[in-house]
Amino acid sequence: MLEINRVSKTFNPGTINQKTALNGLTLHLNPGDFCTVIGGNGAGKSTMLNAIAGVWPVDEGNIIIDGSNVTQLSEHKRAMFLGRVFQDPMTGTAATMGIDENLALAARRGHRRTLKWGVTKQEQTQYRELLASLDLGLEDRLTSKVGLLSGGQRQAITLLMATLKQPKLLLLDEHTAALDPKTAAKVLELTDKIVAQHHLTTLMITHNMRDAIAHGNRLVMMKDGQIVLDIAGEEKRKLTVEQLLERFTDASDRMILG
């Protein structure tokens, strides 16, 4: 479902601020893979997601989503393949519009816009059912402005919007980092539920090693724009934080020696 083949990206080349963010990065995801991504600051995690989304062009390599080479496609043309939730709960929704209007915008992504009634009664019924599944009481606040919601509620809405069209690939960029622990746990629970329900191929960046181990079927660790660990299946299920730290140290040492 996703192929990242030897992708490199250097910012400010030829200047004192030159920074190689991705260095021959290669990663392949099978359909339905839920892959958590960890690594220190500057490891290249968010740069990888931005490369996939087409925020800027890569210097080398190619990116293929569901068999389509999207390397040369602009960001808005890649949107048909992707759903994305950002770290900031204020990003990804229109604060001055209602919950139903935001969901309607997500439902019309990639469709031609016409001059007709914005949200139909049929859609309102559908959205009420979707919101009820979140168990946050939002089904009774369908027309409430999204800007009045809490951070966790907004992230839950953004998650619904990102998955409403069942994208080929779901990108979660530290989408619980700005939330309190209880709310973050709730949003992660919803994430697991939605990903499993729609069998979505997912990349989730997190700084929390426990979350990286507890969620998904695969875990990769990045350092210096490369993947230094790739753990899946039974090995991942039995993994502890202590073992992960030890594996990371060993992999980092091998990189240095190499």
Q: In brief, what are we looking at here?
A:
By secondary structure, the protein is an alpha/beta fold. It has nine helices and ten strands.
State the main characteristics.
Rossmann fold; 6-stranded mixed β-sheet; globular; alpha/beta; 4-stranded antiparallel β-sheet; 258 residues; 36% helix; 10 strands
Structural account:
The structure is a single chain. With 258 residues, the protein is an alpha/beta fold. It has a single domain (2-94, 151-257), classed as Rossmann fold, CATH 3.40.50. The protein has helices at residues 45-53, 75-78, 99-107, 121-132, 151-163, 181-198, 209-214, 233-237, 241-257; strands spanning 2-11, 19-29, 34-38, 60-65, 68-69, 82-85, 169-173, 202-205, 218-223, 226-232. The strands form 2 sheets. Strands 6-7-8-3-9-10 form a 6-stranded mixed sheet, with helices on both faces. The chain has a 4-stranded antiparallel sheet with strand order 2-1-4-5, with helices on one face. A hairpin with a 2-residue loop joins strand 9 and strand 10 (226-232). The longest helix has 18 residues, at 181-198. It starts with a strand and ends with a helix.
Strand order of the largest sheet: 6-7-8-3-9-10
Quote the beta fraction. Answer: 15-25%
Q: How many strands?
A: 10
Biggest β-sheet strands, sense, barrel: 6 strands, mixed
Q: What is the terminal separation in angstroms?
A: 31 Å
Kindly give the count of domains: 1
What radius of gyration results from the CA coordinates?
19 Å
Number of helices: 9
What topology does this entry show?
Blueprint: E1 2-11, E2 19-29, E3 34-38, H1 45-53, E4 60-65, E5 68-69, H2 75-78, E6 82-85, H3 99-107, H4 121-132, H5 151-163, E7 169-173, H6 181-198, E8 202-205, H7 209-214, E9 218-223, E10 226-232, H8 233-237, H9 241-257
Parallel strand pairs: 3-8, 3-9, 6-7, 7-8
Antiparallel strand pairs: 1-2, 1-4, 4-5, 9-10
Helix pairs in contact: 3-5, 5-6
